[in-house]
Amino acid sequence: MQDPNADTEWNDILRKKGILPPKETPKEDEEEEQQVMQQSVVKTYEDMTLEELKENEDEFSEEDEMAIEMYRQKRLAEWKANQIKNVFGEVVEMSGQDYVKEVNKAGPGIWVVLHLYKQGIPLCTLINQHLTELARKFPQTKFLKSISTTCIPNYPDKNLPTVFVYFEGEMKAQFIGPLVFGGMNLKVNELEWRLSESGAVKTDLEENPRKQIQDQLLTSIRCSAPAKNHSDESDSDD
Fold first, then answer.
1. Are 116 and 151 in contact (CB under 8 A)?
2. Contact at 8 Å (CB) between 124 and 160?
3. pLDDT for 44-74, tens place per residue?
4. Global confidence as pTM
5. Beta 142-147 vs 162-167: how paired, if at all?
6. Under 8 Å CB-to-CB from 132, ≥6 apart: which residues?
C-alpha cells in the first residue's frame, strides 16, 4: 500500500483534490516551526515603543516575557541616552542666523536663557562668567550668548546687558539694562534667583540673596538713626 505521507507528485495531486489528508508534520518540524514563529513575533517588539509594549503586554505569553523584558530594557537605555543628549552644561555662542533654530525651536520642555552682550562692557563680562557657572549647575537649561548687534541689528548699547528667558519658544521674562542687574555688585546667586523666578532654573536657594543685603542696610540705617537724633538733642540743649 502506498504511503499517504510520501513526497510524490501523485500524492501531492491527491492532497490537492482532497482525496488524501494533509501530510502529517513531524513533531520536530512542528517544534522548529513554533520557535521560528515565536522568534518572528518577538522580533516585531523591536519596532514597538515602550508605550506599545505596555499596551500589548496582556497578549504576551509567558514564554515571551523574558524576550519582551530584554527589548524593554533596550528601549529604556535608548531613552536615557537621548536624555543625556539634552544635557547642555555650557554657554554656547550663537549668531543671529541661529536664533529661530536655537531659541524658538529649542524643543518641548526646554528652557532657554539668552544673554545679549558686547565686548568691553564689564557687566556683560561679569554676567557671562556667572552664566558659565550656572550652566554647569543647571545642565537641563540651555544657556546661550550672542553679541547684541549680530543677533538684533542696531540693538542699543544702553540696553546691555540683556537677558531673555524662553520656554518652548515663548518669551517668559526679560532683564534689560545695567540697573536691573544691580551693577557690578551682582553676585552669581542673585542672578540664579532671578532666573529661578522666571522658571528657567530650579534653585535650592530659600530666599532672594539681595533681600539679605537690603535687610542689612535697613538694620544699619535704623542703628545709626538714634545716634543722630541724640546728637541733635544735645545741640538744641547747648
1. yes
2. yes
3. 555 666 666 666 666 666 666 677 677 777 7
4. 0.57
5. unpaired
6. 90, 91
